[in-house]
From TrEMBL:
UniProt xrefs under CDD domains: DEXHc_RecG (cd17992), RecG_wedge_OBF (cd04488)
Listed name of the protein: ATP-dependent DNA helicase RecG
Keywords: ATP-binding, DNA damage, DNA recombination, DNA repair, DNA-binding, Helicase, Hydrolase, Isomerase, Nucleotide-binding
Entry similarity comment: Belongs to the helicase family. RecG subfamily.
Functional note: Plays a critical role in recombination and DNA repair. Helps process Holliday junction intermediates to mature products by catalyzing branch migration. Has replication fork regression activity, unwinds stalled or blocked replication forks to make a HJ that can be resolved. Has a DNA unwinding activity characteristic of a DNA helicase with 3'-5' polarity.
Helicase ATP-binding domain mapped to chain residues: 285-447
Entry EC no(s): 5.6.2.4
Top-level enzyme category: isomerase
Coiled coil: none
GO molecular function: DNA helicase activity; hydrolase activity
PROSITE patterns: HELICASE_ATP_BIND_1 (PS51192), HELICASE_CTER (PS51194)
Amino acid sequence: MNANSLQTPIVYLKGVGPNRAETLQSELGIHTFQDLLNLFPNRYIDKTQYYKIGQLQRNSADVQIVGKIVHLKSVEQKKGKRLVASFVDETGEMELVWFRGQKWIRENIKINTPYVIFSKCNWFNGKFSMPHPEMELQKDHEQGLKVAMQPVYPSTEKLSNKGISNRVISKLVQQIFIETKGRFTETLSEKLLFELKLLPKSESLFNIHFPKNQELLAKAQFRLKFEELFYIQMQLIAKNMLHKKKIKGFNFDQVGILFNDFYKNHLPFELTGAQKRVIKEIRGDLGSNAQMNRLLQGDVGSGKTIVAVMAMLLAIDNGFQACLMAPTEILANQHYTGISELLEGTGITCSLLTGSVKKSARRPIHEQLESGELQILIGTHALLEDKVKFKNLGLAIVDEQHRFGVAQRSKLWHKNDIPPHILVMTATPIPRTLAMSLYGDLDVSTIDELPPGRKPIKTVHRFDSNRLKVFQFIRDEIKKGRQIYIVYPLIQESEALDYKDLMDGYESISRDFPLPDFQISIVHGQMKPADKEYEMSRFVKGETQIMVATTVIEVGVNVPNASVMIIESAERFGLSQLHQLRGRVGRGADQSFCILMTGNKLSTEAKTRLQTMVHTNDGFEIAEVDLKLRGPGDIMGTQQSGVLNLKIADIVKDNDILKTARYHAMQLLKDDPSLEKPENLVIRHAYSQLVKYKNIWNYIS
Ligand code: ADP
Ligand code: MG
């Protein structure tokens, strides 16, 4: 059967009909033969064994039994009725029970006729009972396709109510194989099949639905997972290549005076190997005639700022302006201060624009920006306002991309006729697997090395009951001249309560650390920006020793003398947030500490998070654990959660297959970008079919 006839509406499959077609559509999204063929089982059950009722154990797993129904009755219960059948074989008696779909069972079940039943057995009221068993007449069972492993398909309550059981679905799939003689168009090239020793398409589809043995099942799964990931990667990589061809960028071909002067005379430290490599990657993009769209990821403290500065110097050397946008005022201020310091003596002009910059101060900024006099602008969302017009913006850098939406990023594009180069920096490392799948169309640079001399932060978990000891520890550290962060959770849903916790905490800390020996700052989201700024600056200057705050300090704040991070109610924070918070310390030469405070009651997941934090400082490792705990949808935000709606592959577990698929997709497109070579026609055809019938798993926008 060719690919087109697999587009036949499912209603025309023998055994379906209008009613079932509608249910299959609404419940499983199955519209065509193809869709049903691509409904892959969730798991498989060993069906080679039969049990006798007399052999059953109280904790038996799924069992398969041959016997007859001798009696059927309705039993009234609190909520509605249940249907109960007495089921016997030569060794004993048990009950079969239905709560749903009773009418259908009553009308269709045959009394005193041999059935093969299958399900999990319960011990209930002194008897074995099996709720909602799978059932098949023994004579049909014997005629049916013999498989060692019975596939279990996704199911819903409505499906079972309508009598579309697992067995029925399996039968329908069988019907497709009968009508097509099980011959399906190959969708991968000979070369790939050969190189990766992949099972052919027809054999894979057969064995995924009717596995002949474990080995063939494993091969079928590998082939189909590979295929799924391969075509997604093809799409992403093709999109990236097209982007580079189509979207012209400014060509920064000069590595000029400013860049070289800075490198020789102003760089306050030796760059790490990773920083050098990343700068080289960025330079490559900037001189390539195409618009740069690069994600720069690097753990907190890995030194992304200097990379940003050097990229901005390249822009200025080529006669362009650059901007850097940060998600909060505090962070924008810090960037401005830090970068101004770095640029001292270079003659480069740099200004700050945030919501709290006064109108009178804005006018000159606007003017200098339009005249080109101002070379670097640092700020918050305020940069996106229409009034902010650049003479020639050549490079836009966005820090901490998780906080900005795609829409905001694209607003930056439209500040010019030709879009500026874009560099997105994030300290929340996206797990490699996700980066590969989601940002296949962005280029990714990674700083995977910390500047030398950093002492790893020591992280411990302490229960609230040990608070006194923790306070003593704080006192000792302050005596040594260190500064302390104490962070409280602030979750939108319980905002009022959280503020109360914060204020209660602040009061109790003020009591334990009284004036005049101790000075305390407090910063939270309900304060006016100016007040926040004031409190923050006292801490930065070392006038206060303790900073009590909500997560507003999460992003980017840099106070090297602060060496202790206390996180209250740590069980309520997500892993990436905990890691971000911890990154506020460990920036100076002293040994730093992170103390995770929690109550006694912890969920398993919370325990895993805490253990992960105690065990590692590696942001990538943490991101991978986070991905496993929360799943990709959560990590990327609901907006993109549908994105990874894979049919068979699992983005976390099938990481290796993903890498292989990406590698081969990349090779193929490098070698034959428009898939014109005869040996790639198969792929070209399959790809266009996928796109045409939207079977390409509705991938990224
Ligand atoms: P992040 O990647 O979190 O933005 P920063 O750019 O703020 O990190 O850098 C963190 C600290 O490390 C800063 O104080 C910076 O001056 C310092 N730093 C960055 N690169 C190096 C380096 N190669 N050697 C020494 N210190 C460095
Ligand atoms: Mg930073």
